[in-house]
Amino acid sequence: MADRFTSRSGALLAVAALVVLIGWMFDIGPLKSVGVGWRVSVPGAAFSLGCIGLALWRQRSPATARRSHFLGFQFAVIAAILPAATLLEYLLGERWGVENWIGFDFRDQAGLAGRMSPLTAGSLLTLATGTAASAMPAHLRSSVPAVGAITALATSWFAMVFVTFDPSRLADEPRFPGMAAPTILLVALGSYALLDRQVVAGGGVRRAAAWRRATLAAFALPIAAGWARTAIESSPGVDASVPTSVAALLLCGGAAVLAWRTAVRMWMLESERERAIDVLERRVLERTEALAAANRELADANRRKDEFLATVAHELRNPLAPIRNAVHLLELANPASADRRAPLPIIRRQVEHMVRLIDDLLDVSRITTGRFRLQLERVRLDGVIGRAIEMTQPHFTQSRQRLDVVLGDAPIWLSGDPARLTQVFANLLHNASKYAGAPGLVEIRATTSLDHVDVAVRDYGVGIDPAVLPRIFDAFAQGTQHGRADDGLGLGLSLVRGIANLHGGAAWASSDGVPGQGSTFYVRLPLPAALEPVVDATDGESREAPRAAS
Ligand code: ADP
Questions:
Q1: Is the pTM of this model over 0.85?
Q2: Are 473 and 523 in contact (CB under 8 A)?
Q3: What is the distance in A from the centroid of ligand 1 to the CA of 431?
């Protein structure tokens, strides 16, 4: 809303300047001068004001495109050229004919269109500099435009006040000393627009509105006082001191009312702001409380879900043991007819599958409830990996996949639960085989460093979408479904990470999600600082383990 003010003021300024320039070009009296000999503006000042107007119009809001801002910046720089050169002329006591630089012959009857006064040139230069800076980097944007606009406003306001107390110049002189009245108003309009944009860019839309009202009144006051003074002076028989006193009274009284009103307005804005902050803080507090309550409810529901899963897993596991035994007995009985023997391997396979699923479910719920216990002992890494390979070998054979194992020559000793570590690598190898494609390649390699060993299981299969990668180790997490009959429950990786963490290690994965490049799963396990004689998990023999460097 307030930015519209900036762009409209800019456009108005540009149009007003164009009208004045047309007046000068075609010698149209009313456009270049008002009344008897008053100049609206000299051509140089009109040109600069026009450029400032275009710059403000182009820049309007901080959000408009950068190209538009750059164009605005260029207009502002062009606007600065004539006032800067004029000021130099005054300073050096030279006369370069700056007023004719814009390329038209602006001479009037007197032979010269007149150059800007030093006051006009100063106002326009600060205004142009401020407008240019408002399209520049943030640190310049914050202060230079405001300083430029306020200087231009103050200069033109003082010019107005001086005129108010010098009536001869108000009516008779061809133009005001310093600035022509319309030029003053146009400079003021440009300054408001620039300030307005500044304040709005700083976030204070209402502050901008207060500014506008205050400055408008500040310019109306001297005009009213000056008018009152000439009016009283022209009435016959009035004491010479009266008009000056009236003007001074009007100005002072008006300024006092203005200051008072602005102070009240500012105070109201401040208390409104404080009230708004209070309301906001209360709302934030209420929302935080509501979120905390929702969080508690969610945690509660999650705990109940974990308990429910643990109970279900328990209840499902109980009937499985007798079923398994019954199948075993039936197998021992070895029924004579092939029809009766045929279902037994199917029942056994399905029961084993159910047992695995339910065991995984029980393990996950034990890990989440902190009831999972490790049976720690000294184990060799190649031992546990060897067992995991044995367990998963049928999958590799069936899918005609090659498994490359690189574990290094020196045995790596760990303190761990051999069964659980085997479970970790078996899960990873099983997954790798599942997603590597047939035929395919899977690699498992170990890399030791000073205090830990990293085991990487890599396949060159479908890979994992990077979007689901961060959650892939969560319980029940599934990657992209490939419609496989053996897509599981999403518990395997959760167990991998849970068991690795319980060993003081970690597990993570990497994949670009590109089919054919596959994925790599890492398990990091700490190396014990010094190793005692240990029992090898693979063959149960007692061996002297090498001492790790500490
Ligand atoms: P599940 O028992 O369902 O396989 P996991 O926890 O082992 O459960 O795996 C979770 C998901 O991770 C799988 O559904 C699969 O989408 C993805 N995943 C695991 N390993 C691989 C792999 N090597 N390549 C591609 N995706 C994998």
A1: no
A2: no
A3: 6
Q: How confident is the model at residue 80 (pLDDT cuts 50, 70, 90)?
A: very high
Q: Return the residue whose CA atom lies nearest to atom 4 of ligand 1.
A: 488
- Mutate which of 364, 460, 464, 474 for ligand 1 pocket (most atoms within 8 A of beta carbon): 464
Alpha-carbon distances of 145 from 82, 296, 436, 452, rounded to whole Å: 19, 52, 64, 61
Residue 533 has what pLDDT? 45
- The rounded Å distance from CA 299 to ligand 1 centre is 26
Radius of gyration of the chain (CA): 44
Residue 64, pLDDT above cutoff 70: no
> What is the C-alpha separation between 43 and 116, in angstroms, rounded?
9
- In angstroms, what is the span from residue 495 Cα to ligand 1's centroid? 12
Distance 432 CA to ligand 1 centre (A): 8
CB distance 133 to 201 below 8 Å: no
CA distance 406 to 422: 17
Query: 220: pLDDT confidence band, cut at 50, 70 and 90?
Result: confident
Q: What phi and psi values does residue 245 have, to the nearest 5 degrees?
A: -65, -45
Backbone angles phi, psi at 413, to 5 degrees: -100, 140
Tell me how far the alpha carbon of residue 319 lies from the centroid of ligand 1, in angstroms.
29
Question: What does DSSP say about strands 534-535 and 506-511: parallel, antiparallel, or unpaired?
Answer: unpaired
CB-based contact 52:127 (threshold 8 Å)? yes
Half-sphere exposure for 78 (CA within 13 Å, toward CB)? 19
Q: Is 167 in the pocket of ligand 1 (CB under 6 A)?
A: no
Instruction: Check if the beta carbon of residue 518 is closer than 8 Å to that of residue 511.
Output: yes
CA distance 210 to 269: 10
List all residues 6 or more positions away from 416 whose beta carbon is below 8 Å from its beta carbon. 374, 376, 377, 379, 384, 503, 525
Buried b (16+ CB within 10 A) or exposed e, 454-476: ebbbbbbbbbbeeeebeebbebe
Amino acid of residue 352: E
Q: Nearest 5°: phi and psi at 403?
A: -120, 115
At a CB cut-off of 8 Å and minimum separation 6, what does 58 contact?
10, 64, 68, 69, 71, 72, 75
Q: How far apart are CA 170 and CA 165, in angstroms?
A: 9
